[in-house]
Specification:
The protein has eight helices and ten strands. InterPro entries: AAA+_ATPase, ABC_transporter-like_ATP-bd, ABC_transporter-like_CS, MacB-like_ATP-bd, P-loop_NTPase.
Length: 248
C-alpha cells in the first residue's frame, strides 16, 4: 500500500545543504495502524509532508496504492491528496461556522461528490464513532476529544486509502486522547482503514500495531506490538531510552 524507498530530503540554509531524511525505507500494509516517533528535529513532520505530497523530495521513491508520487505535477498531487488520503491535524482544523455534520461533509464537497451516498455515510459514521449526539452542534460547543473524533470521521468520508495524522492528540488530555486512539482502532477494525500517525507520546503510540522510531533522519528501529498495549508501552519507553543514549 505505502512504500517508501531510499527517501532523501534536504533543506538549504544559505548555500549549505542539510540532509533531514537520509535513505528512509518503510512499508505500511492495508489496515495497519502505525506511528512514527523520534526526537524533535528527527524528521517526522518532513516524512509525513513528503507522503502527503505537500513538499517535494530529491531522491528515492514513494508509492501510494500503486501510484509513484515523484514526478507528478501539482494537479495530479492535489488529486492524490483528495482521493487517496485523509488528514487529521493537531488543531482539528474544523470550520467554526459549520456544524459537526457539515464539517464532516466538506471533503465530499471539495471532491465534487456531495451526494446522498455521502450523507448516508456521514450519518453511519457519526453513529459508529459515538458522536451522533453532537451532529448539529458547532465546533465551539463540543469538547476537544469530540472535535478530534469529528476530524477522524471527516478524514474517512471519501474512503481514503490512508489517514495521515500529525500529532492528533497534541492538544488533548490523556482521557480525550485515548478516545481518539480508539476512534483510529475503530476505523481500522470496522473499515480496514490504514492509519499513519506522527506522535511524541509513547502512551498514544502504544495503541498502534507498529511504531517506527526515527533518529537523525534515519530509521533507528521498528517495533511491533506482539502482546497487550501496556507491555508494548513498556517496550517503547525502554527503546526510546536506549535511542537517547540513557541506557546501552
Ligand atoms: N522548511 C524548512 N526549511 C529548513 N529547514 C527545515 C524546514 N522544515 C524543517 N526543517 C528542519 O528539518 C529538521 C527536521 O524537521 P522536522 O520538522 O521534520 O522534525 P520533527 O521530527 O517533526 O520535529 P518536531 O518533533 O520538533 O516537530 C529540523 O532540523 C528542522 O529545523
Amino acid at each position: 500500500m505505502l512504500y517508501v524507498k531510499n527517501l532523501y530530503k534536504s533543506y538549504l540554509s544559505g548555500s549549505k545543504e542539510y540532509p533531514v531524511l537520509k535513505k528512509i525505507n518503510l512499508h505500511i500494509g492495508v489496515g495497519e495502524f502505525v506511528a512514527v516517533m523520534g526526537p524533535s528535529g528527527s524528521g517526522k513532520s518532513t516524512l509525513l509532508n513528503c507522503i502527503s505530497c505537500y513538499i517535494p523530495f530529491e531522491k528515492g521513491e514513494i508509492r501510494l496504492g500503486g501510484t509513484a508520487l515523484a514526478n507528478l505535477d501539482e494537479t495530479a498531487l492535489a488529486k492524490v491528496r483528495n482521493e487517496k488520503l485523509g488528514f487529521v491535524f493537531q488543531d482539528f482544523m474544523l470550520l467554526d461556522g459549520l456544524t459537526i455534520r457539515e464539517n464532516i461533509l466538506v471533503p465530499r464537497i471539495i471532491r465534487g461528490n456531495a451526494d446522498h451516498e455521502g450523507e448516508e455515510l456521514a450519518d453511519h459514521l457519526l453513529t459508529l464513532f459515538g458522536i451522533d449526539h453532537i451532529r448539529s452542534k458547532y465546533p465551539a460547543e463540543v469538547s476537544g476529544g469530540e472535535r478530534q473524533r469529528a476530524a477522524v470521521v471527516r478524514s474517512l468520508i471519501n474512503r481514503p486509502l490512508m489517514i495521515l495524522a500529525d500529532e492528533p492528540t497534541g492538544n488533548l488530555d490523556s482521557k480525550s486522547g485515548r478516545t481518539v486512539m480508539e476512534a483510529f482502532e475503530n476505523a481500522r477494525n470496522q473499515m480496514n482503514t490504514t492509519v499513519f500517525m506522527v506522535t511524541h507520546d509513547s502512551f498514544f503510540a502504544s495503541f498502534c500495531d507498529r511504531v517506527i522510531l526515527l533518529k537523525d533522519g534515519m530509521v533507528f528501529r521498528e517495533l511491533e506490538k506482539n502482546g497487550n498495549r501496556s507491555s508494548f508501552h513498556e517496550l517503547l519507553l525502554t527503546t526510546i531510552k536506549e535511542m537517547s543514549g540513557d541506557i546501552q
